[in-house]
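# step 3/5: fold
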Amino acid sequence: MSSNTPRRPVRDLRFFLTVPHACSYLPGREATTLFLDPQESPVPGVYDSLALLGFRRSGRHLYRPHCEGCNACRSVRIPVGQFAANRTQRKIWRRNADISVRVVPAHFASSHYSLYANYIQQRHADGDMYPPSREQYRTFLTLDEPYAHLMEMYLDDELVGVAAFDQLEHGLSAIYTFFAVSEALDKRSLGTFAILQLIELSREKALPHLYLGYWIEECRKMRYKQAFAPLEILDGRHWRPLIR
């Protein structure tokens, strides 16, 4: 995205709140989500500004948590210029040296969907995205916008992983990663490898940050994000180092 993209002031945009619903991350809690007006497509400029305020993209929607009395969901990002892989991450990088990657537009492909459907069935059969469907996949991860991309991961010409991400003017935003599930491939830690690849891609593009979405300290499934240090956290309208 160009820094010359015209911007609409955030105060001129319309937003809507969902009705309270069961929280996907913390059992026994209710959540409310703030959405950009669906009539406002996530165009450059608007998207760039809202991402700095903690908004994420799902399909054509920009959203962020807006729960009364709870701020457990915290936006986090990696300042890629300061990132140094730890010992475990260096091992994962070397272990996957035989994997090739290719960046393509975020368009529908049957091979992507088959991998996604198997991943949801194997890893997230207890989650909100089960059972998977082609329409659900299209709505979630495909978008005909120049900033929306998919990073394909291949092992011996076989597709083993896909990472959806967006390119903003101030960084890359990791949307979702899915991959083949097997005993042999599980040892490769493809989710971590995908993040390491996006960090490298951010550096190649001279982009200062990789946005990882939301982090909840109490949520076990999100603890992997803490391993990518240093990490910055959105505190109100300001980003600051996460100190733990």
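# step 4/5: annotate
The helical segments are 46-51, 87-95, 110-123, 134-141, 183-186, 190-204.
# step 5/5: archive (pending)
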